[in-house]
Design a protein that fits this description.
Elements lengths: L1 H35 L2 H18 L6 H14 L3 H28 L1 H9 L3 H15 L2 H11 L3 H23 L5 H26 L10 H36 L2 H14 L4 H19 L3 H28 L1 H9 L10
């Protein structure tokens, strides 16, 4: 039991620190973009990102959650060959579904940008972001795999590497031209670099090849059936958090999208505290469930709820009381209207 406590304590600290730094850097990235781009370009960029996020959520089907659960279970049972099989099918399905989502978006970017955003500038933005996602399809599987292997450092720093790579790329690209197209290239480059980063660790963590008899349909069905409920919930949350941006872009203007995309990330800062602990606990909970250790499982869930409540509630009140000064100081008077949101 002490091993689990030590892992959760150490893992939570690393993930929390990684989440804290990546959240701060991501917020600085938004400030940097708001300062460098026009209000309209800022809105077009994040409206395009919201559309891509809403579509790419369907490429997972809960496989990431399934990997984080089944990999530690298979490792606990000494079935190393099964670990490779889970990863292989996750990569294959993620590749196929990423192609299904991204290729039509690349081909139909013109009518989508015209009908949804009413701005031809979004055509190249959508295509570039889709290409970046397609070239880094494997990162989804590898991050989940590393979670299952309890290799905390790579997946704890994945988001940080992505944001830093994007920020550095943008700084270089903006020296050539400051517009929404070059900004989208920076995000695509960040995606690819972060994918290569996590692939380096994941490939080293794959067990040696062991021949295992298996039925492809049974493996895929087992993974998807487990992750499907989580997929439905996460898909609903993702759509809810992105459809509002898409509706604003379609029915209102890019300027209003900009204000909204300043207000929402500021308000959402409170959520990363709970998510850091959840990320570490999932593979541990999977092992505890496999061992039927209900008592320790209950204690872990209690820890999650207690930590999330103690940290998130005071921070939410702080952001509510000082919304206007925060927006004015960091984003400037051009985004003053965002404080009301």
């Amino acid at each position: 039991m002490q091993n689990y406590v030590d892992f959760v304590a150490k893992g939570t600290g690393i993930v929390f620190l990684g989440s804290l730094i990546s959240t701060i850097v991501a917020y600085l990235l938004r400030i940097y973009l708001a300062r460098e781009l026009s209000v309209g370009d800022y809105g077009i960029l994040y409206a395009s990102i919201s559309l891509l996020t809403s579509l790419t959520i369907f490429r997972d089907l809960g496989l990431s959650t399934a990997l984080a659960k089944f990999v530690p279970e298979a490792m606990e049972q000494g079935r190393m060959g099964l670990v490779r099989i889970y990863l292989k099918y996750a990569l294959l399905i993620h590749f196929v579904l990423t192609c299904v989502v991204c290729l039509p978006l690349i081909l139909l970017a013109n009518p989508i940008a015209t009908l949804l955003f009413h701005d031809p500038t979004a055509i190249n933005v959508l295509r570039i972001l889709a290409v970046g996602t397609l070239l880094s399809f494997y990162s989804l599987s590898f991050v989940a795999f590393l979670r299952g292997r309890k290799q905390v450092l790579p997946y704890a720093t994945f988001s940080l590497v992505y944001v830093l790579a994007t920020l550095v790329s943008l700084h270089f690209l903006f020296s050539l031209a400051k517009n929404v197209t070059t900004a989208s290239i920076g995000f695509a480059v960040g995606n690819v670099i972060a994918g290569i980063y996590v692939a380096f660790f994941a490939l080293r963590a794959i067990p040696a090849k062991v021949e295992v008899k298996h039925k492809a349909k049974r493996v895929v069905r087992t993974m998807i059936s487990f992750g499907l409920m989580v997929f439905v919930i996460s898909t609903s949350l993702t759509l809810l958090t992105n459809l509002d941006t898409l509706l604003l872009a379609s029915l209102r203007s890019a300027h209003e999208v900009s204000y909204y995309q300043v207000a929402v990330p500021t308000a959402m800062l409170v959520l990363f505290f709970a998510s850091s602990l959840t990320t570490v606990l999932l593979p541990v909970l999977a092992e505890l469930w496999a061992k039927k250790d209900v008592q320790l499982l209950s204690r872990a869930m209690y820890l999650l709820l207690k930590f999330a409540s103690l940290v998130a509630i005071p921070l939410a009140l702080l952001l509510f009381l000082f919304a206007e000064p925060i927006v004015l100081i960091f984003f400037g008077r051009e985004y003053e209207e965002a404080s009301a949101a």
